Request: fold
Amino acid sequence: MISEWRRLTFTMDELATAILQYLLQTNKITEKESLGKILIVGDDSLQVNATVKGGDKPEGRIIELKSETLGALLLTHCIRSKIPVAKRAKKSIMKHEDKLALILSID
Reply:
């Protein structure tokens, strides 16, 4: 049986775009706020800590995005960017060097 494995690695700019779209769509960020530093943390259970600036706190606030949310927003970004993704593929995320990658596998 043939199996396929793809790794889509996102630059920090692409990750920032995907996160910003998600934050705006879910109303977790206001028009007066902007996305600041993005930090990928963890190895087994990945998480992204995104700093949002321009609100009530001058130092900004941190929004934690868990792996399930990250996978969904990366997949949504692929769909919006017309990057082909097989519907039946098993999807997961991993840290690749200092970037985030969406892993797609079909058995």
Observations:
- The radius of gyration is 15 Å.
- Residues 12-25 form the longest helix (14 residues).
- Residues 4-106 form one domain.
- The mean pLDDT is 91.
